[in-house]
């Protein structure tokens, strides 16, 4: 039991950042915000390809929606001009609204899909929309066999 | 709640999340103060002195109309002044996985079929996205950089270009209004010109007339730019003079993009929500793919391809090093899942348009992939170090490390020598040149001699050499950047020197040109050119080891400050290091020098005796002259590994002798070189000073070498887009 207790305590902090993968922007269609859907090899063993690609594709769709030039953005611009841009103090722009949606989506993906696999996606907005940063975590475990210790602690934790 | 990003002293830059504080420079505020004074002052005078008469004589709508235009002008002026133009936050440390001296200065992307170059920003530590430029006044990279406007004391970029453009239009309109209605007033008061009202009106008219010409000119200029979808920066630097603009979508779409698109978000000064997601093991893993299963099988020691050797060598590495007293070298920068055919992944990735996904190397200590259970048990660090050997062309390093554990095909032997030798040298450089030099050389020599050179000595002395040597073969894949950073940082001065050390080794194969030449070739001015000219910054870093080892440590520091763009620096380095280059029998970095040498002067035929490393670009003459000779010293050539049987030590000794003769021959030829390098340096120094106006001043050096591979040249693609041609 003492051993279990010890392992449980270790378990709490036994995931540590091992590596980071950066998914770069896809500039093939210009400077509109798109990220490459190419599956990074570092994630080969961590997550299914399809899940990753779906996530990136959804993000791309969100960004395309944010940058869409249409009726809403035009009206926003006219309204802003007519109020000497004071409207920006009260109103949220279309882009900001979509960014909030994206943040929520990323949070949800992290919780449901990535964190259980030891990965975390960072909102690209924090990196200036240049990269999607995926942090890869590993079981820290003891200095011995990492997988062994993690499995032991995992079983005791569960 | 959205609002203006903070203005204040910074002149429009929001709260900098990752920008260093800048000194207060009052001179920067003179133009903007003058502009504000003229604008507000003149208009106020106009309203006080001219408008009362206008409203009663003509109509009261006129002052209202003028006031509306004036307010619109003022609002746009304020937005252009205080709004964040689209500043990129500095990249975090872990994103900068590429070593300063290892990664290329430029990365190419294809935008609508046109090759566009992204330059590495040494201040902000990332490759600048297309249309992004670093403003030297604001010391920030700005998205869709247009120009830095002194009249608003702010950069004009993606976020505030629209306001700047509207400001210009509304200001032109306002000036026309003021001048026009002032003229009406004056014409009606010709007999009362001595009254203060008329005098003031005339003064305001003069100011308006004075500013009309430049403002209207600028407005017209920007109207053309908007219609053509260009930025001021691109227009002024002549990027699209002869070619096609990949960023244009047609006149109407360009205009609507400027005026009607939604306000882009700012990147700086945002609230960072704390990571609320808890990452706890155990982690789910996808089921093993076939590749992984295959790798596991190969891990049992069956050497079929590089992948298996990679994982195996890591195990060997660990075992062989277990007796080492030295601390293990820094783990390889890129952590890869063992057994995965990384080379293939890299290659295929390189062949696509997108740059390969970079991975960070800093968080190595914790990495314990389950596949490496057997290695993880004893020495995780060593395992990681062993991993560092894993690279798309791993064999070079590995076989050199463990002569006693040779179960790999003997054809791999050829690579060992070079790798070990190079590693030793590089390690010497990294560690601080002086003391490292001799030992490194010793390691190189031993490597050259035996072919099975343990480089145990060199290895232990320069653990980083392990990583470095692999890096020699594949420039960007290996990064001992972490450890190398500090010593390198001491070598370099700020800013420009950082960029100068961006090694050019990995150029994307998309260009089709492997060209180590291009490494030696400085970049040309047009940025949207074919990839062939792409490689501008060369690997000055690569030159360092050889320079250092050959006893020319002075080469390292003096050249650093000269670097605005690498080309001049490279030429100088090459000139100085050529001799050192030749001294090393099995130096990976000798090859670039040799390639350069050949390009410049007819290479002595005995040069081919030098064992080639995989990243040697062979020119036609080289390969042709070398091919027959390589047969005798085939093992030394990495390219030969797949073709020729392993060589025993005697041929290596022979090759070493040849290399020495080559040195002797080439010696006298090198003398004139430094002058050429000096000239280049002068040009480079002049050109290197600029930052914001891009690329116009980049010195252009002739591309001496052709990248045409001769017969018997094998292409090897490395990690991070490096492709090497190895003479076979």
From TrEMBL, chain A:
Topology term for the membrane: Lipid-anchor
GO biological process, one term: protein targeting to membrane
Segments of this protein annotated with the region Disordered: 139-158
InterPro entries on file: Golgin_A_7/ERF4, Ras_palmitoyltransferase
Record's GO cellular component terms: Golgi membrane; palmitoyltransferase complex
Biased composition regions of type Low complexity, renumbered to the chain: 142-158
Signal sequence bounds: none
Protein origin, superkingdom: Eukaryota
A Pfam family per the record: Erf4
Membrane among keywords: yes
Keywords for the protein's UniProt record, in alphabetical order: Membrane
Domain Golgin subfamily A member 7/ERF4: 21-133
Subcellular locations according to the entry: Golgi apparatus membrane
Family of the protein in this entry: Belongs to the ERF4 family.
Protein name: Golgin A7 family, member Ba
Organism of this sequence: Cottoperca gobio
TrEMBL record, chain B:
Record's keyword annotation contains Transmembrane: yes
Biased composition regions of type Basic and acidic residues, renumbered to the chain: 333-345
Gene Ontology MF annotations: protein-cysteine S-palmitoyltransferase activity
Polar residues bias (residue ranges): 311-323, 390-413, 489-524, 609-622
Assigned GO CC terms: plasma membrane
Keywords, comma-separated and alphabetical: Acyltransferase, Cell membrane, Lipoprotein, Membrane, Methylation, Palmitate, Phosphoprotein, Transferase, Transmembrane, Transmembrane helix
PANTHER family the record matches: ANKYRIN REPEAT AND LEM DOMAIN-CONTAINING PROTEIN 2 (PTHR12349), PALMITOYLTRANSFERASE ZDHHC5 (PTHR12349:SF3)
Family: Belongs to the DHHC palmitoyltransferase family. ERF2/ZDHHC9 subfamily.
Name under which the protein is recorded: Palmitoyltransferase
UniProt organism field: Cottoperca gobio
Gene symbol of the encoding locus: zdhhc5
